[in-house]
Amino acid sequence: MRRFLAFFVLCLLAFLNASVLEAFAKTDTPDHERRPLEDSYFEIGYKSLDLALKECEKHFGRELPLPFVLPPVAFTHHFGRCHHSNDVNDHFEIEYINEKQAINHYMIQVKPLANKLEDFPRKNDIIQIYKLKDGTKAVFGTTPSPRSFYLLVFERAGWQYILSIDKRIEDKASANVLIDIAESVNLTPNSRKLLHTH
After folding, report:
1. Which residues, including other chains, have CB under 8 Å from residue 94's CB and lie 6 or more apart?
2. Residue 57: DSSP 8-state
3. Backbone angles phi, psi at 59, to 5 degrees
């Protein structure tokens, strides 16, 4: 039941964040009168990637390796958030968005394997199963509609990674792009510097 609740919360957060971003992108309010997009994210617990990553690494007591490749999509903002309430929902989250193009929306969620989401994506939502270069299984699928995202779920270094990207940009971010991102999860601290340069 807890794992289903975690899946439901993930889908709900993706929907809500995408809805807020889409509403922000479509507003007719002039830029100089508009509230900064980042304020909405800061209010719900997002912060800079560096701060959120340090917070999560301290909480989990170990390095959290991140991918250094991004989808070939323009982003205007990136935020991080560390969920830590000492339960199965503890995880690190990164969100990349474009305030002018709401469909440019990409997220990374990382959970310790002890708290991983089982059977995610659901059997009916699996499109294909891949094998990464290190032999790791990567499951490519989708979240249920109406706010559909493509997902790639894989495990590495004691973590479960969930990469998700808006299906409306599949021409720029196919399964192969998500596989390349998964392959780039680097187990050295240098990966962090590369992640923040985009």
Report:
1. 49, 52, 66, 78, 79, 80, 81, 107, 108, 109
2. H
3. -60, -45
Length of the chain, in residues: 198
* 39/33 Cα distance (integer angstroms): 14
Residue among 127, 192, 188 at smallest CA distance from 157? 188
Report the largest interatomic distance among the alpha carbons of the chain, rounded to a whole angstrom.
52
Query: Would you say 178 and 140 are in contact if contact means Cβ atoms under 8 Å apart?
Result: yes
Q: Which residues contact 188 (CB under 8 A, 6 or more apart)?
A: 65
| Angstrom distances, CA of residue 55 to CA of 47, 62, 110 | 10, 11, 13
Q: Enumerate residues 6+ apart whose C-beta is below 8 A from 142.
A: 121, 125, 127, 148, 149, 150, 151, 167
Average pLDDT, consecutive stretches of 10 residues, N- to C-terminus, the chain (198 residues):
45 46 52 71 88 95 94 95 89 95 95 93 93 96 82 96 95 94 78 45
Structure tokens at 145: 């509609």
Q: pLDDT tens digit string along 118-162?
A: 988 999 999 999 999 999 999 999 987 666 899 999 999 999 999
Contact (Cβ atoms closer than 8 angstroms) between residue 54 and residue 66: no
Report the amino acid identity of residue 185.
V
Amino acid at 153: V
